[in-house]
Write a structure and sequence with these properties.
Length: about 80
């Protein structure tokens, strides 16, 4: 029987506590979105910048905050679109 996939919030809290494997799993969960944006902007730099953003966002995540897709959209429009 397969182990239950941990919830994203659990992984984020573990990552904030220094668990590198949990941080890798958080990044992995967002890989499809990261690939989508990298393709949209046609740049490998975009891929690594978005991964870096996910790591920083994970470390500053607080429950019941406005963290999420909206913040990612703001980051992309402010930083990435200037490069294309």
């Amino acid at each position: 029987m397969m182990a239950k996939k941990p919830k994203l919030k659990e992984l984020i809290l573990k990552a904030q506590g220094g668990d590198k494997d949990a941080l890798n799993q958080v990044v992995e969960r967002f890989r499809p979105i990261v690939k989508k944006y990298a393709r949209r902007f046609g740049s490998e730099d975009v891929y690594s910048e978005v991964v870096e953003w996910i790591i920083r966002a994970t470390m500053r995540y607080k429950e019941k905050s406005g963290w999420g897709r909206e913040e990612l959209e703001k980051f992309l429009s402010a930083n990435i679109s200037k490069k294309t």
